Amino acid sequence: MVSVESCLLLPERFKSVPAKLSGALGYVFKGQEETLKRVGLRVSRSGGDVELALWTEPGACNRAFVAKVLADTVKTTSLVRVLVKGEIEKRDVRKVEVLAGKGFWQEQLVGFDFKVSAPSFFQTNSDIAEMMIKEVVAWMEDRIGRESGGDGRIIDLYSGVGTFTLPLADVFDDVVAVEMAGSSVRDLRRNLEDNGLYAEVIGGSVERALPELPSGAHIVVDPPRSGLSETARAAIITARPRSIAYVSCDPATLARDLGEFLKNDYTLEAVKPFDMFPRSHHVESIALLAG
Q1: Among all residues, which ones are annotated catalytic?
Q2: 1: confidence class by pLDDT, cuts 50, 70, 90
């Protein structure tokens, strides 16, 4: 944890929050600073939702005291404590405690409503996320539209809470989503139901789920920053997808994975960058491949 006084990516009305929050957290966790692993602040672009998530080690917590102090610092619609064991990157979430509010955060993308739990991944920049969704859906419409009587199945790998699954399920009849994180799977199913959509949801790893699915579909893949594991890459290549939309947040791992696809008779049609993280060196991108 690093104490900061400002964040250039926050909306203007929240520019003073980091400094205030830093002071409040120092007071709440005085003498126990090492137990606080991460602080997450999510601000909805489409509504008034604000969620504050405190990622801490398991242990005793005066929840009423924490909620009261933080309520005087930032007005939230959801205040939660995420109990995590070990390295924060491994996301070994043991429990989520609702300290105040509704216990989840809501955002709207391309007309669909998303409810997101604190441990679940969700894109940080909603404006750019919408641009990427439109790009992926348009690509799939183009590829499937070219086929005559072909299989229009789309498999969304690392689907998360449904960022791509929902818009795809609104256009196509046969969509399968694969996601391993339990909180994301629960959010995905809820989001599909709330939006009146259907997709087959498989809770499990890509490495284990994909070999059990029929080959020759179209694939959307949005892996973590580390990219695809060797086993996941091999599973995708073996499945022989007709086209691939690869969403990446790391050009280095994207280049590595694309190299393997190109060796296996895929053609790189386009790579499109997106400024998901303005004022930083990070870049999001979508690579479009045809089989």
Answers
A1: 249
A2: low
Give the helix/strand (H/E) hosting 19.
helix 17-28
Closest CA to 55 of 83, 92, 90: 83
Q: What does each C-alpha distance from 162 to 132, 166, 207, 268 come to in angstroms?
A: 13, 5, 19, 25
Q: Each residue of 55-70: pLDDT tens digit? A: 999 888 888 999 999 9
- Residue-wise pLDDT for 227-263, tens only, equals 999 999 999 999 999 999 999 999 999 999 999 999 9
Kindly report, as residue ranges, where domains of CATH 3.40.50.150 are found in the chain: 126-290
Query: Cα separation of 285 and 84, whole Å?
Result: 30
Contact 176, 199 (CB under 8 A): yes
Q: Are 125 and 118 in contact (CB under 8 A)?
A: no
Instruction: State the CATH architecture for 12-103.
Output: Beta Barrel (2.40)
In CATH terms, is domain 126-290 a member of 2.60.40.1930?
no
What is the percent of the chain where pLDDT is above 70?
97
- pTM for the model stands at 0.92
